[in-house]
Amino acid sequence: VDWKSNLLDSYDKKRLAEEMEAAHYLLQVKLYRSALERYLRYFDQRPFEEIYGGAFYLFLRGIEETGEFGVHYEP
Q1: Which residues are catalytic?
Q2: Containing domain of residue 37, as a range?
Q3: 23, 16 Cβ separation under 8 angstroms
Q4: Could you tell me how many helices (H) and strands (E) the chain has, helices first?
Q5: Among 75, 15, 24, which Cα is nearest to 48's?
Q6: How many domains does the chain have?
Q7: What is the Rg, in whole angstroms, of the alpha carbon atoms belonging to the chain?
Q8: Which stretches within the chain are classed as H helix?
Q9: What is the pLDDT of residue 61?
Q10: Is 24 left (phi over 0), alpha (psi -120 to 50) or beta?
Q11: Per the domain annotation, does 71 fall within a domain?
């Protein structure tokens, strides 16, 4: 989970996807994933895909109870 406090004009899925690209968060999640995969190799012999469930980017200013706005999932 990565908490973001970006001030956006909208927090719908389309706008969050645009922000993920513009702010280089897609690169960030790839780096985090790679580091985690390397770290876990020392402690768990299972394939990484069995352990890793993806990353959630939670945009604090846009989160609603329904989960429809302010949440971006990156597998």
Answers
A1: 2
A2: 14-50
A3: no
A4: 3, 3
A5: 75
A6: 1
A7: 14
A8: 13-22, 25-40, 48-51
A9: 98
A10: left
A11: no
